[in-house]
Amino acid sequence: MRPLEGYLVLDFSTLLPGPLATLLLAEAGAEVITIERPGGDDMPSLASLTRGKKRLVLDLKSPRDRDQLAPLLGRADVLVEQFRPGVMRRLGLGYEDVAAINPKIVYCSITGYGQDGPKSSVAGHDVNYIADTGLLSISMGTPSNPVIPPALIADIAGGSYPAVINILLALRERDVTGRGRHIDVSMTDNLFTLLLGSSVITSGSPRYRLYPTKDGRMLAVGALEQRFWDAFCHILGLDAGLRDDANDPAATSARVAEIIAGETADTWTRRMAGHDCCCCVVATLDEVSRDPHFVARGVRPALHVPIDRQFREQL
Q: How far is the C-alpha of 134 from the C-alpha of 154, rounded, in Å?
């Protein structure tokens, strides 16, 4: 038996954070019913997030369609929505409305900026959230070579995962109190946990950075602990005077970069094999899909096709 068997989840969300959260609940055994607007979903490239879920197409602006929700709202354990603050309330589906029907409901609202505050109704996507919280400033590159992180940090780390964690906590609380609650998941609020305030992990240290190889690949070095750093320096044959990187970090970094740039990625892979030094060549997605470790674990990159149309406006 899976831990959430017997639980009913109503999913009113469309873009990534909510559907991923309810997918995790579905994989734990919950019955998830996705409430979709007529005309199809808003993010066709993420169709994999509908796995194991049921669909119910309703026009939430139609009183007749909303009436069909009443039996489901009465027996649901969890409701997840991702509209801007106030939208569900205007539809007669706000937390107070639903809790009046079902006091045990765990009602989770996922938004960019939270249910209140000056920015609560501002539109945004992942890049805006990581920009607003300063997270993007740490690794955005230069004006001539701007960089956007390849992962949807705010959506997943700030939205999906906190939603699932707090839903489970609220269900446990309900076991004790008999009542549900409204959960306010703000993706931007949750990003501050990821800001460690240290330059060590943002290329401020020779021990934790990316170094180009001779053939244009990258060596990812994470040799923070002294024993890993010592092993790394030994493999490189780094000058004794530069191994104490506290003396002149810039000089150490420059020499390490010079040494690594003198050999190919394959050469460094061979030299570091069997050594504990927290270093590896940055893999391509194709290489990852063939990596014996991930093949053995049964996992692979989830590549999505490009989105070929504009997102529809949220209600």
A: 12
Is residue 125 annotated as a catalytic residue, yes or no?
yes
pLDDT in tens, 118-143: 999 999 999 999 999 999 988 888 88
**Tens-digit pLDDT profile for residues 234-258:** 999 999 999 999 999 999 999 999 9
Q: Is 155 a catalytic residue?
A: yes
Which candidate in 155, 184, 189, 245 is catalytic?
Answer: 155
Active-site residue, selected from the candidate residues 125, 182, 230, 248:
125
- What domains can you pick out in the chain, each with its CATH number? 8-194 (3.40.50.10540), 200-282 (3.30.1540.10)
Distance CA 191, CA 154 (A): 7
